[in-house]
Amino acid sequence: MRRFVLAAILSVPLGLVLAVVGLGDEFIGMESLGEGASEFGPAPLWYLVEGTGGCGPDRCGAAFWFAGSDVTFLKGDVLNGGNIRLSIDDSDTPGTDLSVVGGRGLPDETGFASRVWIGRQLNENWAVAGRFWHLSDSVEQEPAPAPGSVTLPNFLNLSETSWARIYTVDVEGIRSFRLGRCKFDGSVGTRYASFDADSDLLAFGVFTSGNFEQLSLDTFSGFDGVGVTYALAGRRPIGNTPLHLFVQCRGSNIYGTADHRARVSGTVASAPSSPLVGAATVRRNDYETSASIAEVQVGLECEFPLAYVPASVFIRTAWEYQYWSIHRRPAGGAGFGGTLNDITVNSFASNSQDPVGATLNGLVLGTGLVW
């Protein structure tokens, strides 16, 4: 499924490029198509380099559509601000039998995010564009043992499932200008941002002979808001090659509402006593807050100017860094525990003061049209 999504994302700008090339003399007359043109159609793409194309003065100022997409292979932390602690002890064995921690979200995870943009170049200096970026990932694993603890043999089924979904939608105006051989794009616009991260620890089954446990501990944080996004991007050709060095820096200030939750429920059974049952939830819902987002891209792109419009096809590789900080308030913590015959259980889920947000970096691969 991920391979299909990746192929679909990268095919968007390539399809646009082929459409532009295929329009042929609907854009310009045959006499201006340059070397390689014939009655059968426009010049092949490899003729469409600077100096051989047919973008005359009457066409270079014309408005046109542009688009692009990229995929980022990311590694980093997506944190929900939560903590989970669980310990189970059978008094018939020495020491604490089981002690684990978790509930933070997706620390030190690897995944990929996609970005698609489309815009309208109004004239040589002004453009408008829309952009969508999306990251979604999940992982199921055994929770980490508490520092210094040793897990003794038991029959408990223990797992932690964490997931995160983050996305942004931008609409912005772009002003372009040149300094020497450098091209700069400054932009200001509106951004909608959404952030959700959850962790769920589940312990189920016979722990030791005659003792049964079913425990669920969950932490969650979410944010949705709208604000301003602003960026400055620059690129410069390297010698007389089609390679360009580019740098882009973007910041966003988002205002919206946040939710935080910590939840625990459990059942402990040990014959002949009655089961120990309990549940508790703490939450802070829909309070007004803000978020800050910083993004940096540095890399190389290979550009090939087109004949029909004053734009270039590009293929790009870069390093990208993103930092998200949700300005949170504490929600508190919830616990379940007790002693039943030989079994002592202590479990606690909290969502209080720990940071909520993401720190991501990785490799970008992209393609599309650039003005």
What does this structure look like?
The protein has 371 residues and is mainly beta. It is built from 2 helices and 13 strands; from the N terminus they run H-H-E-E-E-E-E-E-E-E-E-E-E-E-E. The two termini are 33 Å apart.
Number of strands: 13
Head-to-tail CA distance between termini: 33 Å
Structural class by sheet pairing and helices: mainly beta
Strand order of the largest sheet: 1-3-4-6-7-8-9-10-11-13
What is the average per-residue confidence, as pLDDT, rounded to a whole number? 84
Tell me the number of helical segments per DSSP (H or I, 4 or more residues long). 2
- The residue ranges in which pLDDT falls below 50 over 5 or more consecutive positions are 1-59
Task: Return Rg in Å.
Answer: 28 Å
Q: Give, in order, the helices and strands.
A: HHEEEEEEEEEEEEE
Major beta sheet, specifics? 10 strands, antiparallel, barrel
Strand proportion, as a percent range, falls in: over 45%
Overall shape: elongated
Range of helix content: under 10%
